[in-house]
UniProtKB/TrEMBL annotation:
It comes from Niastella yeongjuensis. This is Cyclic nucleotide-binding protein. It comes from the Bacteria. Residues 33-120 form the Cyclic nucleotide-binding domain. InterPro entries: cNMP-bd_dom, cNMP-bd_dom_sf, RmlC-like_jellyroll.
């Protein structure tokens, strides 16, 4: 638990430091939870009650209906996880969150985080800052999906996160990139990653 909290602190403090009292309060709301591979953490229609910080394993958020399945995001150590829009609004999720591998996560509740934001203005600022960066990432990814070729998307992913090729099934990577498995396989065979 202590090592996990140190990773959380390092991750937070690079963007927005907290005072000793704020950190003490913030660190006290997290608990370690372990999940088996392919565990559904949040299902569509449920309201996301938890914010996670990943210590071990890989998770994916995805959308599914009768005709489509689309991977929206992967999370892995050391980053936050959860269905962010449902967590922040406390409205039912349209998406699923599952573990792709066995996972160890720090977890806190919406109610606990809300209490801390009410108590400490600086923690509220921290959450606003992280939300802003998450939105920036979503908009960047939206531009990539709408304007980049399949090969450009492929290259960007593996330049940004080269380790995912060995860790995540290719069908999910293809879905994340907005392409079919055949196109992904062709790119795997022909594109050199430098």
């Amino acid at each position: 638990m202590e090592e996990g909290l140190e990773q959380l602190k390092k991750h937070l403090f690079t963007m927005h430091p907290l005072s000793a009292e704020e950190w003490c309060d913030f660190s006290s709301i997290w608990q370690v939870h372990q999940y088996k591979r392919k565990t559904t953490l949040t299902a569509a229609g449920e309201t996301e009650r938890y914010l996670y910080f990943v210590l071990e394993g890989i998770q994916r958020a995805f959308f599914i209906d009768a005709r489509h399945e689309a991977t929206l995001v992967f999370t892995y150590p050391y980053c936050f996880s959860g269905i962010a829009d449902s967590f922040l609004t406390q409205l039912p999720s349209r998406y699923y969150l599952e573990t792709l591998t066995s996972s160890t996560l720090l977890r806190t509740t919406h109610a606990q985080l809300q209490q801390l934001m009410d108590k400490h203005r600086n923690i509220e600022k921290l959450i606003a800052r992280f939300t802003s960066f998450a939105l920036m990432g979503v908009l960047e990814r939206h531009v990539e999906l709408l304007t980049f070729s399949a090969e450009e998307k492929f290259r960007i992913l593996f330049k940004r996160s080269p380790h995912v090729l060995q860790l995540i099934p290719h069908k999910y990577l293809a879905s994340y990139l907005g392409m079919d498995a055949t196109t992904f396989s062709k790119l795997m065979a022909t594109v050199r990653i430098e």
